[in-house]
């Protein structure tokens, strides 16, 4: 019945027509207003302020108190490294990052990956893909809750207009029919890198700057503005840059949620020498260049990362540090981003060198899998073209990379055109991973409990446009998740559409698109 409904909506959606709803004068007014706001922001560009005495010291500016250090656990030796830490900066083109003296100085200590690409736009889908092996069609920074357990959500009654016809679709149970299974069925047992790590007892954590509490699940967090104490409160933390909390398989398990920690926790863990073996680090919205620029982010790196490079509790001779960006700032160029490999594990003869192998965010997954001989997710991490292992690691593990160059490099600057369970315009349900795939680690594909491997991408119906049907994807909102920062249920459906960290570029593009569209119609 579910498939019949999807097929019906797909047919109806094919005959709907986009309509321009913004008049020229309103589009122009919006554009002018936005320009004024941007000009005001530029005129008041903030200056970097040290968030604390140093990266290993607790700071009251972070609001969230330390929850103590993580326990010491046995170290699982890898073929090349025993610890890996990813640090993600925001929205910067390769050539812009290359103008920073901080990045150039760091490059002298590591390997510059000259052909490393993000996967899509905007931010959140890149973060999700880096730990989940897929962005599931996501094309925005909205609130999602990727399921871990069997779940179904019934569609509300809809009125669908198709040209001059109007059709009403209702839940058959409301009409007294015997069929009560009309629903969007969601996949169970969706995996992510955490599953692969825990299967080999490899410790992990995510450190989020300015997150108020361990395991915070709120859409964002606003606090006193430490850059300007006379200014209004500022949103420093956003959920969209914290990929683990997008997965229900993390947020529904207290022991996993406890691994989502703030920077005061990070200081405690470094001082106790309990930094896990796999780490994901997200600076706040000013320190990651999202709300500022590459110079501001460089100042933060000088404050935070540079001293840590000489701290053996964070960086020893078996530590790999990946310093990268989520995406480019310019959407009209392919998504090439500046990425450095740092840390004590980098061989002396490779420091200050460049690697021209083609990599993407999926390469961080495949490299970890190859290093520890892990299984795979059976998604982008097993896509041979897009998941090359970092060459200096591949040379040790014996993995053979593909030579992808020139016109063979995929275009990854597109957005919104990939069908998926998180794309309301091209919705399809979740599918099982490729259970027969072979990843760089050589292990089996992780198949979560209850996973129905018969639900393959090939078995799914055609995509449907839920937006035109005035519906949201089933995985939007918090669902049944409760925890720190989750609003109390209101009974009005999904929650979470805050404005913290909104992509100004998307607003500019929408306004310009509306202006151009109206001009085209008037012409």
Automatic annotation (TrEMBL):
MF GO annotations: hydrolase activity, acting on ester bonds
Q: Name one GO biological process term.
A: phospholipid catabolic process
Name the Gene3D superfamilies on file: Alkaline Phosphatase, subunit A
Q: Which UniProt keywords apply?
A: Hydrolase
Entry superkingdom = Eukaryota
Alphabetical list of Pfam families matching this protein = Phosphoesterase
Report the InterPro entries cross-referenced here: Alkaline_phosphatase_core_sf, Phosphoesterase
For this entry, the protein name equals Acid phosphatase
The organism is: Meripilus lineatus
Query: What does the organism's lineage look like at the top?
Result: Eukaryota, Fungi, Dikarya, Basidiomycota, Agaricomycotina
């Amino acid at each position: 019945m579910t498939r019949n409904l999807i097929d019906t909506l797909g047919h109806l959606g094919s005959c709907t027509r986009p309509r321009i709803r913004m008049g020229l004068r309103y589009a122009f007014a919006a554009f002018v207003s936005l320009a004024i706001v941007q000009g005001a922001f530029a005129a008041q560009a903030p200056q970097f302020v040290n968030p604390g005495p140093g990266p290993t010291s607790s700071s009251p500016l972070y609001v969230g108190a330390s929850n103590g250090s993580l326990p010491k656990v046995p170290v699982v030796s890898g073929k090349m490294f025993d610890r890996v830490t990813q640090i993600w900066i925001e929205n910067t083109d390769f050539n812009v990052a290359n103008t920073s003296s901080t990045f150039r100085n760091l490059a002298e200590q590591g390997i510059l990956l000259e052909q490393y690409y993000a996967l899509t736009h905007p931010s959140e889908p890149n973060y999700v893909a880096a730990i989940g092996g897929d962005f599931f069609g996501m094309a925005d920074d909205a609130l999602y809750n990727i399921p871990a357990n069997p779940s179904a959500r019934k569609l509300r009654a809809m009125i669908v207009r198709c040209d001059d016809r109007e059709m009403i679709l209702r839940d058959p149970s409301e009409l007294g029919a015997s069929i009560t299974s009309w629903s969007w069925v969601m996949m169970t047992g969706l995996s992510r890198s955490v599953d692969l790590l825990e299967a080999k007892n490899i410790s992990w954590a995510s450190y989020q700057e300015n997150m108020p509490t361990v395991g915070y699940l709120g859409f964002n967090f606003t606090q006193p503005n430490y850059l300007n104490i006379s200014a209004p409160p500022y949103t420093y933390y956003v959920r969209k840059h914290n990929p683990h909390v997008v997965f229900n398989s993390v947020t529904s398990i207290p022991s996993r949620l406890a691994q989502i920690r703030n920077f005061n926790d990070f200081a405690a863990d470094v001082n106790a020498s309990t930094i896990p073996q796999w780490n994901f680090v997200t600076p706040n919205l000013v320190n990651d260049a999202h709300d500022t620029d590459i110079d501001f982010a460089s100042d933060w790196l000088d404050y935070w990362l540079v001293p840590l490079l000489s701290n053996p509790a964070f960086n020893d001779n078996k530590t790999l540090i990946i310093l990268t960006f989520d995406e480019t700032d310019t959407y009209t160029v392919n998504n090439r981003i500046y990425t450095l490999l740092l840390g004590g594990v980098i061989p002396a003869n490779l420091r200050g060198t460049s690697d021209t192998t083609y990599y993407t965010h999926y390469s961080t997954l495949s490299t970890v899998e190859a290093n520890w001989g892990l299984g795979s997710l059976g998604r982008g991490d097993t896509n041979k073209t897009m998941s090359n292992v970092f060459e200096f690691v591949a040379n040790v593990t014996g993995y053979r990379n593909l030579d992808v160059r020139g016109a063979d490099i995929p275009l990854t600057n597109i957005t919104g055109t990939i069908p998926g369970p998180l794309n309301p315009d091209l919705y399809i349900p979740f599918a099982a991973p490729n259970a027969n795939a072979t990843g760089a680690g050589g292990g089996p594909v992780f198949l979560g409990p209850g996973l129905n491997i018969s639900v393959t991408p090939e078995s799914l119906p055609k995509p449907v446009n839920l937006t035109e049907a005035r519906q949201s994807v089933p995985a939007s909102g918090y669902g049944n998740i409760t925890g720190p920062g989750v609003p109390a249920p209101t009974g009005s459906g999904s929650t979470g559409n805050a404005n913290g960290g909104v992509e100004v570029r998307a607003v500019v593009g929408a306004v310009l698109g509306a202006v151009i569209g109206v001009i085209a119609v008037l012409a």
